[in-house]
Design brief:
Helix content is about 10%, strand content about 40%. By secondary structure, it is mainly beta. The strands form six sheets. Strands 5-6-7-8-9-10-11 form a seven-stranded antiparallel beta sheet. A five-stranded antiparallel beta sheet has the order 1-23-22-21-20, with no helix packed on it. A hairpin with a 5-residue loop joins strand 22 and strand 23. The radius of gyration is 22 Å and the shape is globular.
Length: about 425
């Protein structure tokens, strides 16, 4: 009898908590679900978040956050308060694109970069179609559209400190590939690295297939081309230019070398800026990785999505690899701390004070760790864990697609 009474009390208490939290979750999510292309509300409410860990060792002042299906990109301070928002001019973004509008697809906001004057670069992709790359936009601090760069742009933005040029990725279907990368399954989705001026003008383009062709690394693409999903042989998902300041730590590579994460062959590749060929590659022990970057200790930092096996589940981890010795070291998680499942998406960045900023996309959080792996800052969106939506009958997850840390000096427009 006593046990039954206690159980009833627990049910009542649990119901009360659910009733209390449900409106918060509902409000945070209401502008995300069932929002197709072209019908985003221009005054969309943001997904509320909170900081659960904040220590003095955390670096910087603001974090720029991009959410997959939220047409609003915002800056939060170190306490999690939203200080500034850019609302995406979606209808203008789709101008002149009658072909894409007829698809039952969804516009996803993938990456963003804030300039000192408040201008914002925004990279968008499409969910539910292939090619899934879409457009790169620049808007001003009032969310007015400045320019658009079309051509199936996808995944990543890198701004060179040397030139101010924009590096990004493009893909498209092709009928033929180089002869040493045999392909027998119809059309292949080919990746390209694009270089744009600050005004969005195309300056250069490098074919990833051609970068592999004629090198000893082409055999990796040959091996993958026999698989069922081989139409997307490379699936590049990040590009990082070796600028002059960073090049001091990588004497084996030339200034201007390009580091590319080639997800579908589990590889990181460096492309020589003169020969435009792959000159270094490593394809283990990570799996379906994201966001590879040169860091100033001479290593390459990356987000390893599926390389860690814990209790029969694949969990993400943050790794560094030394391109000289090829030795790999674990950055996060360390000790008794367990990683989380994050089978796709994810970003990582090394901050100037040596801390590491991690975008744990599918778990809706951004965390900063120190050099010992301890969490010094943690921001969590108030959404249900792995919130799902349906796109063309397929299950898709809402996600934080990117997070970038800034100092007050880097964004002086906020003081105006």
């Amino acid at each position: 009898m006593k046990e039954k009474f206690v159980f009833m009390l627990w049910l009542v208490a649990t119901a009360g908590v659910l009733l209390w939290i449900q409106p918060v979750i509902s409000d945070a999510w209401k502008t995300v679900k069932n929002v197709p292309i072209g019908s985003f509300p221009m005054q969309a409410a943001h997904s509320s978040g909170k900081v659960t860990v904040q220590k003095k060792a955390a670096y910087g002042d603001y974090t720029l956050i991009t959410q997959q299906f939220m047409p609003e990109i915002f800056l939060v301070n170190m306490k999690g308060k939203i200080l500034y928002r850019w609302r995406m001019p979606v209808e203008n973004m789709l101008d002149g694109d009658s072909t894409r509008k007829q698809y039952d697809s969804w516009l996803a906001f993938e990456d963003a970069y804030a300039y000192p004057n408040g201008d914002l670069l925004v990279l968008t992709m499409l969910v539910g179609v292939s090619p899934y790359g879409y457009r790169l936009f620049k808007i001003d601090k009032h969310s007015n559209l400045l320019w658009t760069h079309t051509g199936n742009i996808h995944h990543d933005i890198f701004i060179s400190k040397d030139t101010g040029n924009i590096y990004t990725l493009r893909h498209d279907f092709v009928d033929t590939v180089p002869s040493d990368i045999p392909f027998k399954r119809g059309k292949a989705l080919a990746d390209y690295i694009q270089v744009l001026s600050q005004d969005g003008e195309l300056l250069d383009e490098i074919s990833l297939f051609e970068a592999f062709s004629g090198t000893k690394y082409a055999k990796l693409l040959k091996k993958y081309s026999n698989k069922r999903s081989a139409w997307d042989i490379t699936h590049a998902n990040s590009v990082f230019r070796l600028d002059s300041e960073m090049a001091k730590h990588f004497p084996q590579f030339k200034v201007g070398a390009l580091l590319v994460s080639v997800r579908n062959i589990n590889a990181l590749a460096v492309i020589d800026p003169d020969t435009r060929k792959v000159v270094w590659l490593q394809d283990q022990p990570w799996k379906l990785q994201h966001d590879a970057k040169f860091v100033n200790n001479g290593n390459i930092l990356l987000f390893d999505n599926l390389g860690s096996q814990k209790r029969n589940k694949e969990k993400y981890r943050i790794l560094e690899v030394n391109p000289k010795t090829r030795q790999v070291q674990l950055v996060y998680p360390r000790g008794k701390r367990q990683g989380a499942e994050n089978d796709h998406f994810g970003r990582v960045d090394r901050l100037p004070n040596g801390n590491t900023l991690i975008t744990d996309s599918l778990n809706h959080r951004v965390l900063e760790i120190n050099d010992k792996g301890a969490i010094v800052w943690n921001y969590k969106l108030m959404l249900p864990q792995r919130k799902t939506i349906k796109v063309n009958g397929s299950t898709r997850y809402h996600a934080i697609r990117s997070a970038t840390r800034y100092t007050k000096d880097q964004l002086p427009f906020l003081k105006q």
